[in-house]
Amino acid sequence: MNIFKTALTNLSVMGALLFSPMMIADVSGSVGISSDYFWRGVSQNNMSPAIDLSLEVSEGRWFGGVWASQVDFGDEARVEYDLYGGINVVSHNDFELDLGYIQYRWDRVYDDVEEVFITASYKGLDMSYHRDRHDARSNYLEVGVDVPWVDMVDMSVHYGLLNNGDDIYSIKMSKNLSDRLILSAMLFQGPDENLDDVSIGRDNLMVALHYNF
Fold first, then answer.
1. Among the four residues 45, 166, 187, 205, which has the most C-beta atoms within 10 Å?
2. Would you put residue 172 in left (φ > 0), alpha (ψ -120 to 50) or beta?
3. Residue ranges in the chain assigned as alpha helix (H)
4. Under a CB-based contact definition with an 8 Å cutoff, are residues 183 and 177 in contact?
5. Which residues have CB under 8 Å from 112's CB, separation 6+?
6. Is the pLDDT score of 9 beyond 90?
7. Helices then strands (H, E): number in the chain?
8. How many CB atoms lie within 10 A of CB 103?
């Protein structure tokens, strides 16, 4: 059985709608492989490589899409696929403000998780806030700042805070190998680690290669 069957079904339905002659929209997507799939500092694929894919459409200020990845929690769940949509509320000079909704889904075992979010950016400073609709302890705030003096790669540093008090520090890097091929990496301190004890290893370093289309 293809573990991406459910996610690909959603992608197919969305694609059929997008390419309908009655609809005009910008379409983009990606396919890639990562050394692991980490979400807010926690491995989602049992420290193993994960394939992911995405498809997004936008029309005017509106956007929406689906993102899917392999997962391994030691049970029957094999695929996570997230559906999201939103609107660009403000786009003025260097300031951007988006509002949206995201639904996290799995092919089996787990119930859907729903969040509403707001993201803002201004001249290399990014901020996002995700509010879990059913569990306030999972509300999540993240702030990121670009590092402009590094020339070899695009680099940014991030701080994330869960409403239960756990925090996550990370450094993200990316390098365009071509117009469509991107190599990226993320080094982080997870929610159950002491910042002073962080060392580079499989449990806190993710490397990924993506092809954008």
1. 45
2. beta
3. 5-18
4. yes
5. 103, 104, 105
6. no
7. 1, 14
8. 15
